[in-house]
Design a protein that fits this description.
By secondary structure, the chain is mostly helical. It is built from seven helices and two strands. The chain has a two-stranded antiparallel sheet with strand order 1-2. Helix 2 packs across helix 6 and helix 4 packs across helix 6. The longest helix is centred in the N-terminal third of the chain and has 32 residues. The structure holds heme C. Heme C (HEC) binds next to helix 3 and helix 6.
């Protein structure tokens, strides 16, 4: 019987070393490299931080799963005809500096929304569309969000925002009032506008940094 390094002990060592190598390679590739690439990303001059109400609306967007059907990442013309669809130029890292968590999305059951504020700036339209999507886009598969609104007989109270539905959808004597969550969500949607020119590439940023140091 031999007490040297056995066949199976060698296998254990190989397993541990192999696992460490794979783990470090994965960390380098998925954590360190993206960090190095993105650490100098600065807010583009045309992009404003979200207001408190817009941030509230962003939470409503997340809570209601809008991201499951809507992306926020118009692609380059080589990948998809997004610019021709009116969704805007291909997005760049700087467009997302204020987005935590990001809402890039993977599904496009509905249109990309990164520039919806530029394309559709009407609060009335958005409120009505959230209350009754099919009143605005016949055959739309988007769900309605009636619980963000209060339907009442009679008049709205002063200061309340009434949804102006198309005549065929408005019921006589009834008012549809937007709740704060609907108003915040629409503030967020109207604020989505990355139509300013894309920020310069990393080479230009390096030049800028050098210039700033001098
Ligand atoms: C089941 C998928 C689905 C979900 C969930 C969904 N949408 Fe939609 N959305 C669509 C589809 C499909 C359209 C295109 C038809 C239409 O205009 O209604 C659309 C259209 C839109 C539009 C108009 C876009 C344009 O370019 O005209 C906006 C704004 C919008 N959705 C916002 C939202 C918000 C905000 C939420 C979450 C509260 C949401 N959607 C949830 C499917 C969805």
């Amino acid at each position: 019987m031999s007490f040297g390094v056995g066949k199976y002990e060698m296998d254990e060592l190989r397993l541990v070393v192999g696992a460490m190598v794979i783990l470090s390679a994965a960390t380098a590739l998925l954590v360190v490299m993206p960090y190095m690439l993105l650490k100098d990303t600065r807010p583009p001059p045309g992009l404003k931080p979200y207001t408190p109400v817009q941030l509230e609306g962003r939470q409503v967007y997340i809570a209601n799963g809008c991201v499951y059907c809507h992306s926020q990442q118009p692609r380059d013309i080589a990948q998809a005809p997004d610019a021709l669809r009116g969704w805007g130029r291909a997005s760049v890292a700087g467009d997302y500096v204020y987005d935590t968590p990001h809402l890039l999305g993977t599904m496009r059951t509905g249109p990309d929304l990164l520039n919806i504020g530029a394309r559709q700036p009407s609060r009335d339209w958005h409120l009505g569309h959230l209350y009754a999507p099919r009143a605005y886009t016949p055959g739309s598969t988007m769900p309605a969000y009636p619980y963000m609104f209060e339907v009442r007989q009679g008049q709205a109270k002063p200061g309340e925002v009434v949804v102006n539905l198309p005549p065929a959808y408005a019921k006589p004597g009834q008012v549809v009032v937007a709740k704060p969550e609907a108003l915040a969500l629409v503030e967020y949607l109207i604020g989505l506008d990355r139509t300013y020119p894309a920020l310069k590439g990393p080479e230009d940023l390096a030049v800028d940094r050098k210039a700033a140091r001098q």
